[in-house]
Amino acid sequence: MSLLLSNSAYAARSGETLYNSYCIACHMNGVAGAPKFGNKADWQPRIEKGIDTLLKDATSGYKAMPPKGLCFDCSEDELRGAIQYMIDNSSSN
After folding, report:
1. Residue ranges of domains in the chain, CATH in brackets
2. What does DSSP assign to residue 18?
3. If exposure means fewest CB atoms within 10 Å of the residue's CB, which of 26, 63, 75, 85 is most exposed?
């Protein structure tokens, strides 16, 4: 007997979903120096580093941020999506 899983079982979680599940704990209020969600001044210097550098730092951990923000089952694409979600919501205000 074979077990088939639906494609949704493998669907990547959205950046917003990851933010609300993991990132929000520190990025909502700037815990331990995390850039605050929605704060352009906090995010601008990080945006200038580029998404690849931000992804590398998020994956391995950076300063007080633990590796993958404790989302150990997050894929690289999911982490990239969460970073992009925070950038998109913090770069135009």
Report:
1. 21-88 (1.10.760.10)
2. H
3. 63
